[in-house]
UniProtKB/TrEMBL annotation:
Residues 15-183 form the N-acetyltransferase domain. InterPro entries: Acyl_CoA_acyltransferase, GNAT_dom, N-acetyltransferase. It comes from Isoptericola peretonis. Belongs to the acetyltransferase family. RimJ subfamily. GO terms for molecular function: acyltransferase activity. Keywords: Acyltransferase, Transferase. This is GNAT family N-acetyltransferase. Pfam families: Acetyltransf_3.
Length: 185
């Protein structure tokens, strides 16, 4: 029997946070295509097929398998039936670590409205309350001040810098590392 979809509180500006669905391929392709220029400086170089519905239709079952096995929580932000962003909890590690990685983006037309901060807070509450995790970690490019503000508002603390951490926009780039501790016990 499939695991029930998590329920999240409503976000500002009529945006909802929900689990990725099998039929989201066309909507994801449209969202990424609409935001291609907005996202390009912050993401890995993408092949042309990334902006096509078929690409996402093939990837979605893999993401949902990760969710079903407890390794990931692939989420989308939706407004008026249109996908306007993503929040992903990936690389869930249990045992003594109880950690997860956080990644996110929002439609350029909705940036700066507090939506992503609310979405990150909701994802952290889910990681703590539903997954029983202790720590969420995130990384931003050194010059991604908007993303760093989101993390700071959502209770993350800066813990260091990782040289050549991720291959973004066609080259290895340094990142600022952040963490949010979910319990103090």
């Amino acid at each position: 029997m499939p695991e029930p979809s998590p329920v999240f509180p409503p976000l500002p500006d009529g945006v909802a946070l929900r689990l990725l669905r099998r039929d989201d391929g066309p909507a994801l392709a449209a969202a990424y295509s609409r935001n291609r220029d907005h996202l390009e400086p912050w993401e890995p170089a993408r092949p042309t097929e990334f902006y096509e519905a078929r690409y996402h239709a093939e990837r979605i079952p893999v993401e949902l398998l990760g969710h079903g096995s407890g390794r990931a929580v692939p989420l989308v932000l939706e407004r008026d039936g249109q996908i306007v962003g993503r929040v992903n909890l990936t690389d869930v590690v249990l045992g003594a670590f109880r950690n997860v990685h956080l990644g996110y983006w929002i439609d350029g037309a909705l940036a700066g409205r507090g939506i992503m901060t609310a979405a990150v807070e909701a994802a952290c509450a889910h990681a703590r309350d539903e997954l029983g995790l202790h720590r969420v970690q995130a990384a931003t490019l050194l010059h991604n001040e908007a993303s760093q503000r989101v993390l700071a508002r959502a209770g993350f603390e800066r813990i260091g810098t990782a040289p050549r951490y991720l291959h973004i926009a066609g080259r290895w780039q340094d990142h600022v590392l952040f963490q949010r501790i979910l319990h103090d016990d």
